[in-house]
Amino acid sequence: MHTVIMAGGSGTRFWPFSRKYRPKQFLDITGHGPMIVETCDRLAPIARDEEIIIVLGDEHLGEAQKLFSDRKVRIVAEPVGRNTAPCIGLGAIYARHLGCERAIAFLPADHFISDRSGFLRALEYAGTISENGGIVTLGIVPTRPETGYGYIRRSRSYSDSSGYSVYEVSNFEEKPDYNKAIQYMQSGEHYWNAGIFVATADTILKEIRQYIPDLYKGLMIIEEGLKKGSFDEDLKRVYEGLRSVSFDYGIMEKTKTPLFVVPCDCGWSDVGSWESLYQLRSADYDKANNLSDGDTILIDSRNSFVSGTRGKFIACLGIDNLIVIDTDDALLVANMGRSQEIRKIVEHLTDKDKRELL
């Protein structure tokens, strides 16, 4: 099965650990190695290295080439970031160039999944469904009333002979408030939108032609460059002129093609913030629900995450619900509940032109 791994994110919510030239997907966030490598390894039972296409930013090409120097994964560098619709379109034409006529899985590079076999079964089944036409997305079975994710609402069951659960998509819901998130969880009809799509290249490109025609025109120029040997030059020339548009907004919210959701209960986390990493590592908590790395001591402290892996001793007294992250050149102290807002610090540093801290 061909897979396109989308690795163009900047990981601003993991500052100061994550930086512009070494974002979250290249870091060992979960203790299993760089997340982009972990993602590729997870796919090994269903995708050979030659069938894995990594799409990333040009500034991260060197780092990726080092990580995969002994493997045959394909690495494609976007000259500039243009969101997920161009990324998925680029992956589709590249897979088609490699001869792929069957389903392609498009997935982020920086997610954590504890049940690999369950995830791969859902992915393969989504591929089977997509080859009959349409686009299939994996819907993560919610485990809590989460306000930080978008949701997919299912409608009627889609029948086939496999006995695997699959539903037609009713609609996509924006991030809800807490009360609505509780309703979504209780309904049994809503799933977290993990941004994982499965479809053939022809289906993806047909949808882009219909709903984002300017992007389609650019992709066709790039695809012609693949055939003629001018791929790098055409990619750079075309990509800079593309609009930034997400696949969700540009295609999924507008398409008339059949959309399906395969429920997936696989221990998924987007590991999108320090708080989500704290929650993911609950097995490592002390008796007061603290999580600590490095040479640290927490006295009369609760519900906090303290990381001092840079050789400096960190002592905390009487703290509650805090994040403390120490690096060589920056120290972050933040309220745990506001970890999604850490990107504001990165925006401030950008405004102040403090490039050495980005």
Question: How is this structure best described in words?
Answer:
- The radius of gyration is 21 Å and the shape is globular.
- The chain folds into two domains: 271 residues, Alpha-Beta Complex (Spore Coat Polysaccharide Biosynthesis Protein SpsA, Chain A); 83 residues, no CATH class.
- The model has no long low-confidence stretch (mean pLDDT 94).
- Helix 3 crosses helix 6, helix 6 packs across helix 7 and helix 7 runs antiparallel to helix 8.
- 42% of the residues are buried.
- Helix content is 31%, strand content 25%.
- With 358 residues, the protein is an alpha/beta fold.
- It is built from eleven helices and 17 strands.
- Strand 2, helix 2 and strand 3 form a beta-alpha-beta unit.
- The strands form four sheets. A five-stranded mixed beta barrel has the order 6-9-7-8-10. Strands 12-14-16-17 form a four-stranded mixed beta sheet, with helices on one face. Strands 5-11 form a two-stranded antiparallel ribbon.
